[in-house]
Structure formats: structure tokens, C-alpha cells
Amino acid sequence: MSDNTVSAYLHDVALLLNFLEEKNININEVSLKDLQSFVQYVTELDLSANSQARVLSGIKSFYKFLLLEQIIGDDPTELLEAPKLTRPLPVVLSIEEIDLMLAAIDQSKPEGQRNRAILETMYSCGLRVSELISLSISGLFLDIDFIRVTGKGNKERLVPIGNEAIKQIKLYREHIRNHISVQEKYSDILFLNKRGAALSRVMIFMIIKDLAAKAGIKKNIHPHTLRHSFATHLVSAGADLRAVQEMMGHKSITTTEIYTHLDKGYLRNTLEQFHPRYNG
User: Is 279 domain-assigned?
Assistant: First the structure.
């Protein structure tokens, strides 16, 4: 598991232990009724439905562990229900809006060329922020139009990269990065700040927000919006969902399927093609 996942699970178990301590309940004697009270306790913490579901998922994993280690004989979470989740459709940029953001970059400044390469790479490859800031020079296979990406759970995947992104990365490396005094531990990291260190997630967030404002885009966007836009534009153009799933590093195709709901043309074309009575 990634460090963030481990940290989240530890937080979830700590929440449960605090609750049991308050109620003077032994963890080996927890009943379904106790856990239902815990669900109510979590609800009163004013967490979102998604956060509540994540906490319960963590607790269920914890009890599966206890069962596996034969610390308990029965799993009291087996019948525990998580809150019903509604999944909002993500915000997506149009191709024109992405062009406006690219045009808003001041490439006369050193960070301008870097930011152009960052945007082109994120949109070309559909990267998560964590994948972008950890992108390594040794993971660039630009001669065959691929990059190696380290995704969730440190899983690696090869992702195709477009010509414009390749061009901007080469310009950045040749004219900007080569003139930075790079800190030794970041020597293989592609995108750096002016002090020669890796960029933070917050820095990428600020870059994207600033460019959106300069481009006059009123949507509430963040770095992940470029990833959503990448997938939506591919699906809209008729790309195979399995291929999009592979490129994005989704564990389940269910996650990828949300992008079909963003494109009404895709849904209509699917109905026309496959429904026997659509065209009479």
C-alpha cells in the first residue's frame, strides 16, 4: 500500500479505538450493534459520505486482518452497511479552454517553459499530480513515444505521450533544466523548482489555478481536471474504454466508465449502434 493509504487506515482504526474506549468496550467483544453506534459516531463528526465510507472500509479491512490472524472468531463488520454514495460528475475543460490556458503561459520566463511542458504532459498522458511530480528522466522513452509512470501503490505503467508534449519536455530540459543547480537527490526528477528540488502538489495546484484565471476560465478546476479532460476527450473521440483504463492506471473499469456519462454523444452513438429498435 502507499504511505497515504497506510496513514488513512491507521487513522480509521484510531477512530474506532477512541470510540470503544469512550464506551468501555473490549475490541475482542465488539458486536454489530456496537459498530452501528460507531457509524453514527462517525456521522456526527461531520465527515462527508465519501470519508465515512472510507473509514468503514478501513475498519472492515482491520477486522478481516483480526479474523485472518485468528484473534477473533467472527467478523462483526460482515453485515455493516456503508452510507450510500452519490458520485458527482467531474468538471472537464474543453479543448478550446486548454488552448487558452496554454496561451496564457509567459514562455519568456524560465518557469514558463517548464509550466508549458507540465501542462502538455498532464493533458497528453492523463497523469495524477503525484505521478507528474515524481516523473523521472530515466522513465522517459521519448524515442518510442512512451513514459514510465509510478501510480497508486507504487504500480508502474507505460503511457504513450504525444509529439507536442515530447517537444516541450525537450525544450525544457535543454534550455531550462540544464541551467539549474540540481540537488543530488532530485537528479533524476524531471520537473524542478528554481532551487533544484522537486515540485510539490501545492505548487502544481497553484500553477493550474493561476493559468485558469489568466485564461478567463470560471470553472472550479484543479490539476485533476486535466486528467478528467484527457479521458473525456478520448472517450468522446471513440477510444476503447479498456485502453483508456490502461492509460489512466484504473484498477477497475467501473472508475473509467464515469467518462461515458460526461459525453452524451458517446451514449447516443452506443445506443444507435447496439439497440435493435433505436432506428425503428
Answer: no
What is the distance between the alpha carbons of residues 80 and 60, in angstroms, rounded to a whole number? 9
pTM strictly above 0.90: no
Instruction: Judge whether residue 132 has pLDDT over 80.
Output: yes
Whether 159 and 243 have beta carbons less than 8 Å apart is answered as no
Instruction: Work out the percent of the chain whose per-residue pLDDT is above 90.
Output: 51
Q: What is the CATH number of the domain that holds 195?
A: 1.10.443.10
For 13-21, the CB contacts below 8 A with 24+ separation are 13/58, 13/59, 13/62, 15/42, 15/55, 16/59, 16/62
Pair 107, 173 in one domain = yes
**The pLDDT value given to residue 159:** 96
Number of separate domains in the chain: 2
Enumerate the active-site residues. 128, 152, 224, 227, 250, 259
Q: For 179-210, how does the pLDDT look when each residue is reduced to its tens digit (9 = 90+)?
A: 999 999 999 999 999 999 999 999 999 999 99
Residue 212: closest CA among 198, 199, 226: 226
Q: Give bridge partners of residue 189 from the DSSP assignment.
A: 136
pLDDT top residue among 244 and 30: 244
Which residues lie closer than 8 Å to 173 by C-beta, 6 or more apart? 137, 190
Instruction: Tell whether 201 and 237 lie within a shared domain.
Output: yes
Cα(174)–Cα(250) distance, integer angstroms? 33
Q: Which grid cell sits at 244?
A: 483508456
CA–CA separation, 54 and 85 (whole Å): 11
Query: The C-alpha cell of 178 is what?
Result: 540544464
Q: Please, which residues bridge with residue 148 across strands? A: 158
